[in-house]
Amino acid sequence: MILMHHNKLTSLRTFLLLTTLLCLGLNGCYYDVEEDFKKMVDCNTDGVSYTNDIVPILQNRCYKCHAEGLNLGNVTLEGYDRLKLLVNSGRFLGAIRRDPGFSPMPQNEAMLPDCQIMKISAWIEAGAPNN
User: Which DSSP helix (H) or strand (E) runs through 117?
Assistant: First the structure.
């Protein structure tokens, strides 16, 4: 009886030890520093311009719903002045970053690539110039 109790305790200790090691090993792989992820993306955000950088992103990912002729959701991104209104309100960046409280854009599609979001953010931080 004592031997059977000893075997159960040994098995339980072995199980707990293995479970603990497994949990520690899995947690050791967890990585969540957003700034480090952004550094890993090779993305040049120097001198981002509305014409050369922002408009092509909008044409490829946004105008199919938010062009002047469509205006889905009562949002038109075509044309600098219209975009600038949404930029100034914070709605544009909040939507493409999918921040809480904003309608995630592009809707029912994959999120914009990190580099495109970084370029848009850099352009906005520079005052969203019409360049």
Answer: helix 114-125
